[in-house]
Design brief:
CATH superfamily of the largest domain: Glycogen Phosphorylase B
CATH topology of the largest domain: Rossmann fold
CATH class of the largest domain: Alpha Beta
Radius of gyration: 21 Å
Helix content: 40-55%
CATH architecture of the largest domain: 3-Layer(aba) Sandwich
Number of helices: 15
Number of domains: 2
Strand order of the largest sheet: 3-2-1-4-5-6-7
Oligomer: single chain
Mean pLDDT: 92
Shape: globular
Distance between the termini: 8 Å
């Protein structure tokens, strides 16, 4: 069997695709997998690091202001269309799977137009433009939230949940090793700060502004700034505050965390649900249709997370952390409620749908 997977631009598109690829390989070690991404985006680095081949397309999105990139957009669309078709003819996939991003749109669209079976996976509660456009052509649409028939044809929808890395499930036995790995004080509670794969400027500024309060509270702080912001904050490293650009061992990071600060991307929420973590969500305002706020409110309404807006974060975020760190009862309530939203078998369900479409060989 041969599969093409495409998802990129952010970790929220890339890691679900990698999780699906890993499950396909687990079930059939002899299958062949090829990734397709945008040639200047992070998937060109992250996918090979996880052991898979990737081809790059010359494609990007439209900017909201007049730029050279916008003027080149029609040419990029044509170039990506021709290269996508060339890749498909050469590789001859049985199924093409898209998890979001501009390259995903190109390769899935071409595959569908060539009569190849196609699957898309939508992580968010508000569908992205690429997937909305593709939904008319694809065979199956895997979703995580209720009510997605407002975006997609209902007969194509299968509710599967979001695929996550298997090492994030059942992490509590890893806590002692995680404390040693990150060189934390095992007698202190730990705050884990995440800003998505690219980092979050507002979260970083808010933590830096309240760093003295965190030090006075005598808690461990494991702070992933993102590579773009690391140079601005690395000087804040201290005995109990660990500032890093990127955390590769996310299972260990979740294992040691008592409270997590995070953006409200769908993949992050799925991981925190499966890891059973009390979290404070700071939705990014710089996303289509404010979908991260919608993601966060789905948890807040079930008392499964707290939310601080991006605008309020500089004044409120650290104070919310300190209150929650002292309130074990509230942390336990959040953990219980978020764990009830976990979909541990999401990756398996998505692969089940892919295999239903794959021709028998």
């Amino acid at each position: 069997m041969k599969y093409i997977l495409s998802g990129g631009g952010t970790g929220g598109h890339i890691y679900p695709a990698i999780a699906i690829a890993n499950e396909l390989k687990r079930r059939d070690p002899s299958c062949e997998i090829l990734f397709v991404g945008a040639q200047d985006k992070m998937e060109m680095e992250k996918v090979p690091a996880n052991g898979y081949k990737i081809e790059g397309l010359w494609i990007s999105g439209l900017q909201r202001k007049l730029t050279l990139g916008n003027l080149l957009f029609p040419f990029k669309v044509l170039a990506s269309k021709f290269k996508a078709r060339k890749i498909i003819k050469s590789f001859q996939p049985d199924v093409v799977i898209g998890t979001g991003g501009f390259a995903s749109g190109s390769i899935v669209n071409e595959a569908a137009s060539m009569g190849i079976k196609t699957v898309i996976q939508e992580q968010n509660s508000y569908a992205g433009l690429t997937n909305k456009l593709l939904s008319k052509k694809v065979n199956t649409i895997c979703v995580s939230y209720d009510g997605m028939d407002q975006f997609f044809p209902s007969q194509k929808i299968v509710q599967t949940g979001n695929p996550i890395r298997k090492d994030i499930i059942n992490i509590y036995s890893k806590k002692n090793n995680a404390i040693k790995l990150f060189k934390l004080d095992d007698e202190k509670k730990t705050l884990l700060i995440l800003g998505g794969s690219l980092g979050a400027g507002t979260i970083n500024k808010s933590i830096a502004a309240g760093i003295q309060k965190l030090q006075e509270a005598k808690i461990n702080v494991l702070w992933q700034t993102g590579a773009y912001y690391y140079e601005n904050y690395k000087q804040l490293n201290s005995e109990f505050i660990k500032v890093v650009d990127f955390i590769k061992e996310m299972d260990m990071a979740y294992a040691v965390a008592d409270v997590v600060i995070s953006r409200a991307g769908a993949l992050s929420i799925s991981e925190m649900s499966c890891a059973n973590k009390a979290c404070i969500l700071v939705p990014s305002p710089n996303v289509a249709e404010d979908h991260q706020t919608k993601n966060a409110m789905a948890l807040v309404n079930r008392k499964a997370a707290l939310m601080v807006t991006d605008a309020d974060a500089p004044q409120q975020l650290v104070n919310e952390v300190l209150v929650l760190m002292k309130d074990e009862k509230h942390r336990n309530e959040l953990k219980k409620n978020i764990s009830e939203m976990a979909r541990m078998d999401a990756t398996e369900k998505i692969v089940d749908e892919i295999l239903k479409l794959a021709p028998k060989k």
